[in-house]
Design a protein that fits this description.
Oligomer: single chain
Distance between the termini: 18 Å
Structural class: mainly alpha
Radius of gyration: 16 Å
Helix content: 40-55%
Number of helices: 5
Order of helices and strands: HHHHH
Shape: elongated
Length: 95
């Protein structure tokens, strides 16, 4: 799971004037998108979606809002009976 600290460490290997392209997606993006879709998710679930996006990203397709939507759709597809009782009772969509 990448963190800001691990990315900073990785970037130290580049020359300061070297041109690079980088896109950063964070848990706030996932939480905001969930809110736009009237979904309630936890910070941990948002982090899990970010981790899955990083681990499974396709260099030809990149990461887009559709990628986040797919992660949210996956959460929403989990039957309530399979959710931990404490999360299912509070109305959150969770795995």
């Amino acid at each position: 799971m990448p963190t800001v600290a691990s990315v900073i460490k990785h970037l130290k290997g580049y020359k300061p004037d070297e041109h690079i392209a980088i896109a950063i997606w964070c848990e706030e993006d996932v939480l905001g998108r969930a809110e736009e879709r009237d979904m309630t998710i936890t910070k941990e679930q948002a982090q899990s979606i970010i981790d899955q996006m990083d681990a499974n990203q396709d260099a030809e397709l990149g990461i887009t809002w559709d990628t986040i939507d797919a992660g949210l759709d996956e959460l929403a597809s989990v039957p309530v009976a399979q959710l931990p009782e404490s999360i299912a009772d509070d109305g959150s969509i969770a795995v």
